[in-house]
Amino acid sequence: MGHPDSTNMRFVFFATAVTAIGGFLFGYDTAVINGANSYIKIHLNLTPAQEGAVGASAILGCIPGAMFAGFLSDRFGRKKLLFLCAFLYAISGVLSAIPRTFGEFLSARFISGLGIGASSMICPVYIAEISPEKWRGRLGSLFQLGIVIGIFMTLFINKLIQGLGDDAWNTVAGWRWMLGMEVLPALAFIALLFTVPESPRWLTQKGRESEARDILEKVGGAEHAEIELSAIRAAVSQEEGRFSELFTGIYFRPLLIAVLVMAFSQFCGINAIIYYSTKIFESAGAGKNAAFSSTVWVGLINLLFTLVAIALVDKLGRRPLLLIGAIVQTTALGLVGWMFHTQRQGIALLICVVTFTGAFAMSVGPIGWILCSEIFPNKVRGRAMSVATFTIWLSCYIVALTFPMLNDSPSIGPALTFWIYGSVSFLYFIFVLLMVPETKGRTLEEIEKSWRTS
Predict the structure, then answer these.
(1) What are the pLDDT digits (tens) for 372-386?
(2) Domain 243-454, CATH number (from 1.20.1250.20, 2.60.40.1080, 1.10.260.40, 2.40.50.140)
(3) Which of 16, 87, 93, 329 has the fewest CB within 10 Å, making it most exposed?
């Protein structure tokens, strides 16, 4: 394969960095509700059940967003779907800031969920399809980096807005500004998308080979473009691209791997930490200020170890990082459960929680998205990725819904809850060891061919 020079890499890096703004909006939108929900509850006079619906409403939008995005991206193109995601984020930011009733707020959050679900499917696919194999892992990690930056920055944006007024002001207006601020990066995303190209693989599949050639030449030169086009043509000629094919023949194994990777990434309990870290630390005896400080540490470690993944994913490979991450997650979660069981508090609990977060952030957090965007054949990649992202959002919803019940249950409690998550992480280690292939340094067409010959 051709090896892009630095000028070519600037072109690729710019396109992937713009796409990673979709990850930033994903992270911001996911986390912003944590700072706003207590004020929304008072302003709209919500019942406990309605408060739970506020937290879950965006996740419910993620599920159809992920499912329909694959078909639409295969039909109309990756770039058009990126535009749609950006517009959904912008519309949701406006509508979430001006609701008069509980129903209007749920509708606005559902729209944001459509954007999150669609972007979680299309952004990794677009990055995988435009990136040269040598850099695909690191560039693919930018999407997860965008997510964790969005989550981390939201902590401070919410804190800054809260400081602009007292509780009465925040109850009337502060939470509206928290949610409405999303409009600014969404508009920047829309503007920058005009400057990035369409996926060359999608263009080739649609018979627009001259456009695809121009883009591939910018990525790696004329020789790189010819080699890539030849491989894409060969792959496309062998595919019919029917959705039903995903569940039969050579496509079932990559689909099974993707679905299990996404399910394991959620049932290990990461979003119990992201959504409920303050509650976890308070239940361990920390005061509100200490719990918030601990949550900031979780966000910071999540960000720093995503950078570790970016540095190592194309050097060590996908499998080694996944295996290391799974073992560390299992150990850390086991210790968290033991500390709750023995009623130990303080810095040791924080260290174990951030160790788990760091292990996730350097392994399955970014690599799950990368792997799923790599292992599917070109012509069905969009629809197949939709199934994978549907899985992650359904799993996320189950974890978000069940953690408070498990944690507060007299018969289960936090210790057994975290031991359950640790057991899932151990099963995930066995799964990676036995089933997940290495994709480092291989083109998408070479990965596809391996399913045909294995």
Answers:
(1) 888 887 777 777 888
(2) 1.20.1250.20
(3) 87
